[in-house]
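Recall the central idea of this unit: under ordinary conditions, the amino acid sequence of a chain determines the structure it adopts. In this exercise we apply that idea directly, starting from the sequence alone.
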Amino acid sequence: MSTLGAPPLPLPMTRLFAFALALGLAAPLAAQPAPPRAGLQVGEIHQAFEARRDSLIEFYRTRSAPDLTQGGYFEIAANLYEGTHLDWAVARLDTILSQPARGDMFWMYPFTTVMYAGQDVLPDATKRAMRDLWRTYQPYRGDTENHWALYYATLYLAAQMYPDEPGETWFTGKSSQENLDEAEEYLLSWMDLTTTVGQGEYDSPHYVRVYIAPMALLYAYAEDPAMRQRAGMMLDYLIADLAVESLEGLSGGGHSRIYEREVIAPWRAAGASKMSWLLFGNTPYSVTGESFIVALSGYEPPPILHAIATDRSQPYAHRELKRTRHRFRHSDVKNAPVYKYTYMRPEYVLGSTQGGLLQPIQQQTWGLIWADDDPAEARNTLFSLHPYSSPDEMGMYFAELQEFIVEIVVRSKTEYDSPDKLTGGSPYEQVVQDEDALIALYDIAPGTRFPHVNAFFPADLEGLTEDASGWIFARGGDAFIAYYPLAPYTWAPITDVWDETVTHQRLESPHLKNGAVVQLAPASAYASFDAFQAAVRALPLETATEPVPSVRFTALNGRRLAATYGETPTIDGAAIDYDGWPLFDGPFLRAEPGSRQLELTYGSMHRLLDFNTLSVRDWVDTPATSSAPR
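Accordingly, the structure predicted from this sequence is:
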């Protein structure tokens, strides 16, 4: 599994970072749309971020006021923060407070934002009414990792605002100090778990925003310097994890949780792209309440994060170690490891995990996204999956009675129990990737509810060709795509969830022994699309489906991939070392399991997040230090 060397640092960025260090501003400086090679100076970068931040606050400030029938917590918080439309903000807030609270932990963080934004300007009567809600309303803590991050971060801040109060004044029945201690204990344990063995709800384009938002609230309002420092470091950590696998703000790879509307149109509904607009300015304008919280918090990404997020001038491979969410049944381990691999090019990003039941309901095991001039309208993705549906999967990850769990899940996740679904993991799936070549194998047990493989081919593809060689060729943007199904298939139409006039194609292969080989290349590498097809046809390829699916394939990069279902894959004859998989490894991010550290690197720039000492260190290599062993 190769990783390319770090791309060279453009001279303008070297000057930029050195200037930032000289001013003592390297840690809090912000991002802007252009890549670092554009040579903008520190002040221009900072001003660009401030402009986006201010426009986001202004959007919420003017969205509803002074209409007393409109506006929610974020609109109220924006006006309290700016000191504008205060009469409207108080009246609107009083109206909302007169109605029953709802929303559980998703109520807690907008409500907490208002509490702190208005702590110096709200009337005492309104603040008393807000305080009493922490006694009378019992928000559900939830059952996912993002739920608990939201719940405990906001409970921590509420207990901090109302110290030394007895248990009868809290919905938990615990005192302020007990609530604070419980929340702190969970937050520290979650940070420790994340920085040692990885997140469980990993790299979700939808839910990344509700990890960033609670950390931003703690960064803005935690009175304990250690907690505020931890929150700022976790913001760097989470955003680095987002930045390194994103192409123009779109999250590549294997995902723990992704909705079908996001998997079809990666920019349209993903919180990651909305957050990237504020942080880096590298996506079309889009707003979300969670990015608004970041805008209020005072946090700005350091220059090195901007560089990692925006510079795609050199291709690179990147590996990460994550974990499954907690398992209750049907597993010998509580948290199984998740091995992620992502290959990034200016034209596309291909990412994957090893397959299996890594997350319930909304897993994406592998996926391709290509760059598009108009990401807001693009359907620029391709992937395959086995649409597995079983009480065993739900029983593995949910504590409810297994006999009823599928019915309960389908009430809110209607796509789960559908043979046509486009998200989900399977125990009968195995994937291996090396750079822009990938093999997906499926060995589906007889009697499985949906015994077929789905592959999504979007309407945006050009030149879709079913070749006599068995390869399917297509072009997406500047990505040349080759897809080789191991078993016969048919095509079925899919109506787009965003525009019913758009029709995609679903490749359906109704065979238990199945799989696919995927090979990509940049259009610039070949004289023509025909030349790419000829090169792929000439590649050595051996496939079999009995007794189990297997593939031997020599990729365009010359490396030999071999995969047999149930066995450890090999590359150039060497078995992949899953036991030695790093927490992060690539030209930009490096961390070892258990280290509680993350080193960010961009050319000669470095930033070390050390949770052991609760410190952040920035430095720039000199000729003497860059040649020294590390």
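Confidence is low (pLDDT under 50) at residues 1-39, 626-630.
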